Request: fold
Amino acid sequence: MTKLPTLTHAGDTLTRNALAVLQPGFDGTTTAPDWLRRRIGEGLASVSLFGRNVRTAEQVAALTTQLRAERDDLLIAIDEESGDVTRLEVRTGSSYPGNHALGAVDDTALTRDVAADLGRRLASCGINLNWAPSADVNANPDNPVIGVRSFGADPLLVARHTAAYVEGMQSSGVATSAKHFPGHGDTAVDSHHSVPVIDVDRDVLNSRDLAPFRAAIAAGTRAVMSAHVLAPALDPDNPGTISRRILTGLLREEFGYEGLIVTDGMDMQAIAGTYGFERGCVLAIAAGADAICTGGGPSDEGTVLRLRDALVAAVKSGELPEERLAEAAERVRSLANWAVTSRGSGAADRSGGAPDTGIGLVAARRALMVTRGDTYAAPVTEAPYVATLSPLPNIAVGDETPWGVTAELERRFPGTESGTFSGPDAGTRALAAAGERRIVAVARDAHRHGWMADALNTLVSARPNTVVVEMGVPQSAPVGALHIATRGAARVCGEAAAEVIVAG
Reply:
C-alpha cells in the first residue's frame, strides 16, 4: 500500500508532539479514511476504534493492517471491557462476562485466563491497547454508570482481580489501562453528563478507591485512565483529569507510576461542558496526562486539527510547557514500542481469527446465583413470553448491543414471543401482552428503578410461576418462582441463564 503524502514537515517537532498525544476516533467507517492515514504520517501515534468501526473480527484485522501501513508502531485502542461494555462484539453481545461476574466467582486464575483469552482475540485483530479494566470499587449501589463494570464493592477483592486482569491481558501483548483514577465507584452522577463528586476523606480514598490502582501498578499496567471526578480530599478545585495534584502529585510522585496516563473521553460533559473541549485537553496535558482520548463523540479531521492547534498554541503562549508536551508524546511512543516488542507473546497473526475457547461461557455459568422460591414451579418447557424491563442505557454501555435472554430462548423454543417495557405501568402491560404464556421477566438493576421493582412484583403476584432474570447488580431481594442473577448482560450471561431456565 502506498503511503499518502504528509502535509507537515518532519522536522516540526512541536506539531508532531501535539499529534502524538491524541487518541482520536474516526467516523462510522470500517476502513481508514485518507485524512487519518495522512495525519498518522505527520505524527499521530494512536487511533481509537469504536463500535461504529466494527463489523467482524476479520474486517477489524484488515482495518488495523491498513492503519499500520502508515507506521508499524501505531497504538490502536479500544474500549473492550467485555460484559456490558463491548465494542468488538457490539452487535452480538460479548463472549465474556464482565467484571462483576468475575468478582462474584472470585477465582483470580479464572479472571486472569479470561483476560488473556480476550487479549489474544484483540491482538489477533491488531489492537494493542485496551481501555480496561475498570478498577472502580462499586461503593455506591445507586451508581448509574459503573455497576456491573466493577469487580465489586470490596476493595481487596477489586484489587486482586484488577491485578489478575492486568497480568492476563498483558500476557497477550495488549496493554491495559486501569480506570477511572482516582475512582468512579462512589458516585451517583454519570461523568458523561456532569462532574461527579466523591466527598470522603483521604483515609477512605486510600483504603477503598485507591487500593485497586496500587494493585494495577504493582501488576505492571502499562496505562492508567483518569476520571472526570472531583475528590475534594485530593484536590478541592479540579476533577482528576485536569488535576496536577492527582495525576502528577499522587499518581506519579506518591505512587511512583511511570507508565502512560490517558484521559477518559474529553468530549464528556464533565470536561467539555465545564471547561470546553480544547481547553480541557490543554489542562489535562498540563496536569500530567500523556494521551487525550477523543472520538466517542467528535470524530472527524477537524476535531484532530482543532486539538492539535490548541496544544501548539498553548505551548507558544507559555500556558503549556513544551517539555511537558514532549514528555507526554514520548510516553505514548514508549508504549507503542512496548506493544511492538510484545507481539510475540500474543497473537502475532493479525487475521482476526482467534478461536473461541468457550472460557467466557464457563465463567458466566460459574457466576450465576440461582434462587428457587417457596412456590418453585417446573422448568420452562415450551415457548414462553419474555418481558424485558429496560431502563435507559448509560452512554458507556450504549444502545446498540443486544442483551437479555430472548434470543437464547427463541433458539430453544421457536415461537417464543417478547416485548420491552418501561415506566409505571410496565408490569400491567407485560401481563396483557403475555396472554396465557409462561412469563420470563428480565430486569437490569431493579434496585435502582422503582418502576422496575413494581413491575416485577406485579408479574410475580399475578403469575407466581414467573421466572425472573436480573442482569444487573443483584441488590434487590430475589422474587419469582425462579430467580437468576447473572451479574451482567453479556451474551454469554444470557446463554447461561437460558440453560438454567430450561433445566430448572
In short: Residues 1-11 have pLDDT under 50 and may be disordered. The chain has 18 helices and 14 strands. The radius of gyration is 23 Å.
